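Shape matters. As here.
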Amino acid sequence: MRVTVVGAGIVGLATADALVRRGHRVTVLEAHRPMGARSAGASRIFRLAHGDPELVAAATEARRLWDDWSERAGRPLLGEEGAVVSGPRVDEWAAAMIAAGAAHEVGHPPSGTLGRTDGPVLHDPAGGALDLAGAGRMLQEALREHLRPGRVVDLDEFDADAIVLTAGAGTAELAAQRGIAVPDELCHHVRFAFRLREQPTAVPPAHLDGTPGPALASTYQHRTPEGHWAIGGHLPDELTTTADHSLDDVRRRSLDAIVAHVRERIGELDPEPVGEVTCTPTAGEGDGVRTARVGNVHALWGGNLAKFAPLLGERLAEAVVHDHVAHAIGPPDDPADHGR
């Protein structure tokens, strides 16, 4: 089978890899550079903790596949430091963990948690930071004969048995050519990295804090492979949409809000940023995966997809090979509730 994968982010690469391992002829087209748009940045948070049991179950399956990727890479791609969830969603997410049979604890923050927390937290021992850049390098090496530069404008130009759209911000326009409605309102998002004043003896757990503040709806934080601490904060959607706000404007608002958050709640960090990552996600996307198929075109979109990447690659590959719609995961919900 000849398959064209449009988009070389982590999900597109995972899909192409799964198809190549099944013996199919695959071409991956990328308009800019692999791992350069929504998959940019060295790391992401992995977690079993979600507000829906189906998402918890999918993350559990994905974690096993991340272990397989680690074995292929010859080094861990997923940290063992765990993850902590705090704020008003703790009870709901704990209930979803119970329904899915996932190990967790609710109570005091585990030793080494950075910053101040209010109230009990949910501790997800299977969580941690993903080495996303490392995973991307492994997949690109495996797919080096299949990667091609190229911007796709018209799906009719391809003589392929199947076309897979994993093009991030470009998916909506391409999917519309087959009548597939994909959300297309985009927003800017900026994540900053900070130095720890003292390096801890153990890696602190990743932390998703849903406690709303004066400027941020929620925050998420985790270590980076460089040993820094990455913090992202969700501004209200109306302050981030690309149609109404420039990246410079969103960057300034995000920087002011996140630095203020560090000064107030995370004394272990030097509040002067040492790095940043920008991306342009779809506005209003929370956790969850959506899929569609029309003819030979398969499309996938959603929010916070990196943690599911190896699972999504396997499911998309199976959908292509067996000519069915890949399984969607979880309900769409409020992006302010979730870390990337």
